[in-house]
Design a protein that fits this description.
CATH superfamily of the largest domain in chain A: P-loop containing nucleotide triphosphate hydrolases
Shape of chain B: elongated
Oligomer: heterodimer
Order of helices and strands of chain B: HHHHHHHHHHHHH
CATH class of the largest domain in chain A: Alpha Beta
Largest sheet of chain A: 6 strands, mixed
Structural class of chain A: alpha/beta
Strand content of chain A: 25-35%
Helix content of chain B: over 70%
Number of strands of chain A: 14
Helix content of chain A: 25-40%
Number of helices of chain A: 11
Structural class of chain B: mainly alpha
Radius of gyration of chain A: 25 Å
Largest interface: A-B, 33 and 29 residues
Distance between the termini of chain B: 34 Å
Shape of chain A: elongated
Number of helices of chain B: 13
Strand content of chain B: under 5%
Number of domains of chain A: 2
Order of helices and strands of chain A: EEEHEEHEHHHEHEHEEHEHEEHEH
Largest sheet of chain B: none
Bound molecules: adenosine-5'-triphosphate, magnesium ion
């Protein structure tokens, strides 16, 4: 659906070369919500601009909807919707007028119908005749989301849709994106917000000039930290940890004791569903009082930070 | 075609709500029309001495003015030189509009979503150019009509009035004015796609008034004879300039540079 091959974009700035994107290989599948994560200056906006045929490619190739970028740009533009970093509305014109202009430019068949549909979907219908300039940030953002969807594009690029919004406005925009899932659209979402990425995205790419890692959030976690079970014991004794270490297929056991004499065993293993019952049985057999058994879930933030520290592309520092 | 129309409609809706641009479009032509009208009124009432006639000098060589009484000649010469102002008008109005139309989009960051739509550069620029040119042409014609109404009352004779609707002025208004407007718009678009400050764009763009000032001063000093040939010739030169500038306007409008160049 979206594919890039050794994609590069270099800018000349004051005589020196800035490598905004440097050898990106990417494959986004049809109908998935794809999270594109990276620090400031990683080249996310640059990548989106290339894929939306707004700026040229320095080296490499890219395809959107099986059309090659740089070859049939008008066709590609007609099939993608884009939410740019800043809303860029015509502030002196009404919300409705803003959308009508874009509906016409996108060759929408039923302009009033589509405009009404999206104004209603985003809760802006009541304010349709107000000047866009008088809108709050959140409303402006919603209006530009509507603008990106008028022509029902199969591919949608969202560049940081919720940054700069207060938590409530961010939530409404996020909820709306969630409703877009499962409508068959491919959504390419740039974000800094890791919870948002986790909630919305089927797969996540961590990126800085080039691809660092890409997978489902769950798989990324497993890849980095393996799987871990945490067993809470009412009373800690070194015997318990030793017994668990003695079991087959247990890779590692950490012990965390607390002041009241209780303790936690953090057990790294391959297959918690199959191994946990045996572990509990062993512990109980040793006389341990098991309080809770959980899976330890690392936050996406841990994953991200760990990738940024260990997997950073050599030479590609963020400004 | 629909896309060009959409751009035009958008530009006009935006223009109506932009006070600064609106005032320039409406007020500048009105003020500029007042100058020749007042000139005409004054000239009709002051006595003309032989001394004044001598000062007009070479200008009276124009075959249009032979056989005229001193006061008729005086009025005709002064007023028709003032009519050159009507050629400056179509330069000022569109330059202002065109400058704001691209720099304004850069500032409000609306250019990026606009360029993301399936519109070609030519369509975008044609829409913007027409949106900027039409008000300039219409306002000039309107001002000319207003001037003619006053001229009808203030002219000392029908012969004087006849000068103002002489074929040379009709050529100027209906051939040269549209061509000049297109030139102004092209310059405005070129300049404003290269800068991010609307005032700078406007001021730079205004420099194209200079060649016309040459015509104006030349006419006042009597070096250039205002007649149909002069205006046909000016029209031809302007047409060639239009074609050249129009081509460069599209070539120089590099989407990427305009979008990503940092302030
Ligand atoms: N026109 C340009 N000229 C020079 N350098 C540029 C240009 N556009 C982008 N860059 C540089 O390219 C790099 C990537 O920028 P980009 O805007 O794509 O990052 P980003 O990942 O979107 O960052 P953010 O999270 O801050 O939005 C940055 O170092 C930026 O300074
Ligand atoms: Mg960005």
């Amino acid at each position: 659906m979206i594919r890039t091959e050794r994609l590069c974009k270099y800018f000349q700035s004051n005589g020196s070369e800035v490598r905004a994107v440097d050898g990106l290989d990417l494959e986004v599948r049809e109908g998935e919500v794809f999270g594109f994560l990276g620090p400031n200056g990683a080249g996310k906006t640059t990548t989106v601009r290339i894929l939306a045929c707004l700026i040229g490619i320095t080296k490499g190739r890219a395809w959107v909807n099986n059309l090659e970028v740089g070859q049939v740009d008008l066709k590609i533009r007609a099939q993608v919707g884009i939410l740019t970093e800043s809303p860029g509305l015509y502030e002196r014109l009404s919300a409705r007028r803003n959308l009508e202009i874009f509906a016409n430019l996108y060759d929408v068949g039923d302009v009033p119908g589509q405009v009404e549909k999206y104004l209603r979907l985003l809760g802006l219908w009541e304010r349709r005749d107000a000047e866009a300039g008088a809108f709050s940030k959140g409303m402006k953002q919603k209006l530009s989301v509507a603008r990106a969807l008028l022509h029902e594009p199969p591919v949608l690029f969202l560049d940081e849709p919720t940054s700069a919004l207060d938590p409530e406005a961010a939530k409404t925009v996020r909820d709306f994106i969630e409703t877009l899932r499962g409508q068959g659209r491919t959504i390419f979402l740039c974000t800094h917000n890791l919870d948002e990425a986790e909630r919305l995205c089927d797969r996540i790419a961590v990126f800085r000039q080039k691809l660092i890692a890409v997978d489902t959030p769950e798989a990324l976690r497993r890849q980095l930290f393996g799987r871990q079970t945490v067993v809470h014991l009412a009373r800690h004794d070194e015997r318990f940890a030793a017994a668990v270490r003695g079991l087959t297929d247990v890779k590692h056991v950490d012990v965390v004791t607390s002041d009241d004499g209780g303790g936690k065993l953090v057990i790294s293993l391959n297959d918690p569903a199959a191994q946990n019952p045996g572990i509990v049985q062993t512990l109980v057999g040793q006389g341990a009082q098991v309080q809770f058994v959980n899976e330890l879930r690392h936050s996406l933030e841990d994953v991200y930070l760990s990738l940024m520290q260990n997997g950073a592309a050599p030479g590609g520092g963020a400004q | 075609m629909k896309k060009i129309r959409t751009i035009i409609g958008k530009e006009w809706a935006d223009m109506r709500r932009n006070k600064l641009v609106f005032y320039v479009v409406v007020l500048v032509p009105l003020l500029m029309t007042a100058i020749p009208v007042v000139m005409l009124a004054i000239m009709g009432h002051v006595g003309v001495s032989q001394n004044d006639m001598n000062e007009l000098g070479r200008m009276l060589d124009n075959p249009l003015f032979v056989d005229m009484s001193p006061i008729e000649a005086m009025q005709s010469v002064m007023a028709s030189n003032m009519l050159v102002l009507f050629l400056i008008m179509p330069l000022m109005v569109p330059v202002t509009i065109a400058s704001y139309s691209i720099v304004g989009e850069k500032i409000s960051r609306s250019l990026e979503p606009l360029l993301a739509t399936p519109i070609t550069t030519t369509q975008l620029l044609l829409g913007k150019a027409f949106a900027a040119a039409a008000p300039g042409v219409v306002m000039t014609w309107l001002s000319y009509a207003v001037f003619l109404v006053f001229a009808y009352f203030f002219s000392v004779s029908t012969r004087v009035f006849g000068i103002f609707i002489d074929p040379m002025w009709l050529i100027a208004m209906f051939v040269l004015v549209p061509l000049l407007t297109v030139m102004a718009v092209a310059v405005g678009i070129i300049v404003s796609s290269r800068t991010s400050d609307p005032r700078a764009a406007e001021q730079l763009g205004s420099l194209i008034i200079l060649p016309l000032m040459v015509l104006y001063i030349g006419a006042m000093a009597g070096f250039i004879m205002l007649n149909s040939t002069t205006f046909w010739l000016s029209s031809l030169i302007t047409l060639l300039l239009d074609l050249g500038l129009g081509y460069f306007g599209v070539v120089l409008f590099q989407r990427e540079t305009i979008l990503t160049r940092w302030k």
